[in-house]
Amino acid sequence: MSAPGEQHEAARLSRIWDDLVAGTPSKRADDAALLAEILLLKQVTHVPAPPPNMKVRLWGDLMRQVPPLAPVVVMPGKTSNGHHPERDIPAPTAVQSRNTTILLAASRWIAIGVISGFAAGFVAGLWVRIAMRLAGILTVERNRGLLTENDALVGQLTIEGTVSLAIFGAMIGVAGGLVYIATRRWLPRSGWLRALGFGVLLLAVLGFVIMDPGNPDYRRFGPAWFNVLTFSLAYLICGAGISLVADFLDRRIPPLGWRTDRRGRPFAWLVVLTPFTVIGVLAIMSALVNLMTIPMGRIMLIPLVLLVAWRVAARWFDDADLRRRGSLLLRNVALLAPAAVGFFLTVRAVFTILTG
């Protein structure tokens, strides 16, 4: 048990402390020394609160959101010793759901693919126009003045024809841009090596789209090998351009969001890119519809259908590793199967053109 003197000092300390908390500090002369020690202890142990704007900014950084515009709410909180310190409770910050984040990221990449594909395809279309001019120069005399399959006069260079060909190349380039977005993660990391690699991939998989073996112009106007070479370069130009432009845009365009930062960039970019995203979605839907109209296209779509079916059915599987492995396998097959078919068609087209 405590000695009577200690009990007296404890009661005295409690009385002085309660008077201080109540706002009426003791004025007794014998309490002055103890009161001074209490005030000194309180001053030493007091930790000032950080500036409100600093706390709001840190909170926003932690939540990866823009700091809330609502002011900080100050609410009293009772502690065990009778104090009522102020606690800063930040206003709640909206956090985008995972699905929304994925949707915005996909929209951003689709828009980047459309823009880069259109730009690179336009340049490739101009190169095709130059290649056709060169083919016209190398055409034998008896074929000069003939019309091509597209009713164009060989050797004649017009602004209308050049622009039309460039626009056609841009439309083909949009498809190439979307292919780049789908295959980007499997390409080399180095910028120029990735650009060259995608150009070769584009030529190997989609070369048959332009190099049609049923088109006699490849053999009538200029040497067949020269036409195959120049049109192959068009694929390389388009593929490399898509890669370089897409990577440039990826570095410049921030992640999209419904909110804005101090410069208003995320939402502004969302507004700017939305039309290109819509174009990309329509292009994907159009490509799927066109593939379903031809037998070879339906075969190319089988792995994609299986992948979608697996994603739906895998929700009922308890084995997470099985779900992951199955999705990875079908995703790779969905990419490799069309690539293999496209490569076969391209090789067959080039062989037919060269052998006549």
Report the helical percentage. Answer: 55-70%
Largest sheet: 2 strands, antiparallel
Number of strands: 2
| Main sheet strand line-up | 1-2
**Low-confidence runs (pLDDT<50, min 5 residues)?**
64-96
As a percent range, the share of strand residues is: under 5%
User: Structural class of the helix and strand makeup?
Assistant: mainly alpha
Oligomer: single chain
- The number of helical segments is 11
Distance from first to last alpha carbon = 113 Å
Mean pLDDT over the residues: 77
Radius of gyration: 35 Å
Series of H and E elements: HHHEEHHHHHHHH
Q: What's the overall geometry?
A: elongated
Description:
Helix content is 69%, strand content 2%. The protein has a two-stranded antiparallel sheet. Among the domains are: 1-46, no CATH class; 102-291, no CATH class. The chain has helices spanning 4-21, 32-45, 52-62, 98-137, 159-183, 191-210, 217-220, 224-252, 265-292, 295-313, 320-355, and strands spanning 73-76, 86-89.
Explain briefly what this protein structure is.
The chain is mostly helical and 356 residues long. It is 69% helix and 2% strand.
List keywords for this structure.
single chain, 356 residues, two-stranded antiparallel sheet, 69% helix
Helices, strands, pairings?
Blueprint: H1 4-21, H2 32-45, H3 52-62, E1 73-76, E2 86-89, H4 98-137, H5 159-183, H6 191-210, H7 217-220, H8 224-252, H9 265-292, H10 295-313, H11 320-355
Helix pairs in contact: 4-5, 4-8, 4-9, 5-8, 6-8, 6-11, 9-10, 10-11
